[in-house]
Amino acid sequence: MVDGVTHRAAVYPGTFDPLTNGHIDLIQRATRLVDRLVIGVAVNEAKGPLFSLEERVQMVEAETRSIAAQSGVVIDVVPFRGLLVQFARGVGASIVLRGLRAVTDFDYEFQMAGMNHRLDPEIELVFLMASDGNHFISSRLVKEIARLGGDISSLVPKMVLERTLARTGTVEAKGS
Questions:
Q1: How many alpha carbons fall within 13 Å on the CB side of residue 110?
Q2: Where does the Cytidyltransferase-like domain lie (predicted)?
Q3: 101: annotated active-site residue
Q4: Vertex 119, ends 114 and 121: CA angle to 5°?
Q5: What digits encode the pLDDT tens for the residues 33-84?
Q6: Residue 22 is part of a domain; what is its CATH number?
Q7: Per-residue pLDDT, 127
Q8: Can you say which residues are annotated as belonging to the binding site for ATP?
Q9: Does the predicted TM-score (pTM) go above 0.85?
């Protein structure tokens, strides 16, 4: 509590490889719930990232700058490795924000929520359902479609589109 006002901080973790419009939607909606949002960009070599950690952090920072300015919420983009609850504790967050797209997400997230609660019962998990039009978007599918020459222009922000197409060696999609 600062000056009699409770400040709520949340962590929104992910690999963001690449950042999608679904991620942006959750970030925008999260700013209505918290005073500070820490976007934790996870190190996860096992997923075979398209972009380096530094590139992912830079893209998330660039794409969230205007959201922070419009909402008045502090948005920090921080790389992390290790346990999510330790990261959340380390950045002063008492909330972990996760997005849900489908039943398969729920099954995985339910297991993770139980384990994270066991590791640190003081950290609350908040799920936001994907908005209409975003429930099918995943970074994995975006990468696959881009590699195969499909149109991802409606799935990612413009800067991310350009970088993804350049990285995958595909031509710019029609209509973008």
A1: 6
A2: 11-144
A3: yes
A4: 75
A5: 999 999 999 997 776 799 999 999 999 999 999 999 999 999 999 999 999 9
A6: 3.40.50.620
A7: 92
A8: 15-16, 23, 99-101, 109, 134-140
A9: yes
